[in-house]
């Protein structure tokens, strides 16, 4: 399920992304084509934060990481660790639910070439902050990629120089909480072996130890 922190479907804080949304609505009227809200367990202790919806993934289906390669790897990995119930079928109405886990993005609208600019990341941080505030039980934040990491550090009010991004890095936060980093589970990163399935699973093994 989603929580009530989602931006308006017509959010206009980022003019470039609003224009791209309108273009996509014209060319693909059957797609979701709106800011994609977070999804998962409202009691989640693990929050996973990606970069932004993929054009033909979440922007098409309306659920984070659903319908493209990154989602295939992410949801298969979550299944292996018991963090999903039901079968992932790459569409928002597949009935799959997340256990103790919530998934969102640093930027809620699909950006051209999958590259948000700094002003867009900053503008959307209010919605990332709202996600965190609406999930008070969280213990671990998993940042998928450097942009998600940096936006989470800013959201937490911490200094970037104290929290260097690195795959597998575990950053201790106040109150026994953690910020954990992973390379993004994109097709590019797996095709180039920057991220292997074993590396990705290693991150989740470490996270689950911290949630015990
Ligand atoms: S990226 Fe975020 S802030 Fe920008 S238009 Fe979309 S929902 Fe609004």
Q: Helix/strand-derived class?
A: alpha/beta
Oligomer kind: single chain
Separate helix tally: 7
Stretches where pLDDT is under 50 for at least 5 consecutive residues are none
Secondary-structure element order, as H and E?
HEEHHEEEHEHEEHH
Which outline best applies?
A: globular
Gyration radius, in Å: 16 Å
Question: What does it look like?
Answer:
The protein is built from seven helices and eight strands, in the order H-E-E-H-H-E-E-E-H-E-H-E-E-H-H. It has helices at 15-27, 58-61, 69-80, 118-133, 146-155, 187-191, 197-211; strands at residues 39-40, 46-50, 84-85, 97-98, 101-105, 140-144, 170-172, 178-182. The strands form two sheets. A six-stranded mixed β-sheet has the order 1-5-2-6-8-7, sandwiched between helices. It has a two-stranded antiparallel sheet with strand order 3-4. The radius of gyration is 16 Å and the shape is globular. The site of iron/sulfur cluster has 14 residues, from helix 1 and helix 4.
List the helices and strands and how they pair.
Blueprint: H1 15-27, E1 39-40, E2 46-50, H2 58-61, H3 69-80, E3 84-85, E4 97-98, E5 101-105, H4 118-133, E6 140-144, H5 146-155, E7 170-172, E8 178-182, H6 187-191, H7 197-211
Parallel strand pairs: 2-5, 2-6, 6-8
Antiparallel strand pairs: 1-5, 3-4, 7-8
Helix pairs in contact: 4-5
Bound molecules: iron/sulfur cluster.
């Amino acid at each position: 399920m989603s929580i009530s922190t989602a931006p308006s479907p017509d959010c206009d804080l980022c003019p470039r992304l609003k224009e791209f949304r309108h273009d996509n609505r014209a060319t693909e009227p059957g797609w979701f084509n709106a800011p994609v809200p977070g999804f998962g367990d409202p009691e989640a202790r693990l929050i996973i934060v990606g970069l932004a919806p993929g054009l033909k993934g979440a922007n098409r289906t309306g659920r984070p990481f659903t319908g493209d390669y990154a989602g295939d790897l992410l949801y298969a990995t979550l299944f292996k660790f018991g963090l999903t119930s039901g079968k992932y079928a790459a569409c928002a109405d597949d009935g799959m639910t997340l256990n103790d886990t919530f998934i969102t993005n640093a930027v809620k609208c699909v950006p051209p070439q999958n590259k948000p600019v700094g002003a867009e990341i900053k503008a959307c941080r209010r919605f990332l902050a709202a996600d965190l505030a609406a999930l008070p039980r969280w213990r671990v934040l998993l940042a998928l990629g450097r942009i998600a990491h940096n936006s989470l550090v800013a959201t937490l009010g911490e200094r970037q120089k104290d929290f260097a991004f690195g795959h597998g890095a575990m950053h201790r936060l106040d109150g026994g909480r953690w910020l954990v980093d992973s390379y993004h589970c994109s097709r590019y990163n797996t095709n180039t072996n920057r991220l292997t399935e074993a590396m990705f699973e290693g991150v989740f093994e470490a996270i689950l130890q911290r949630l015990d």
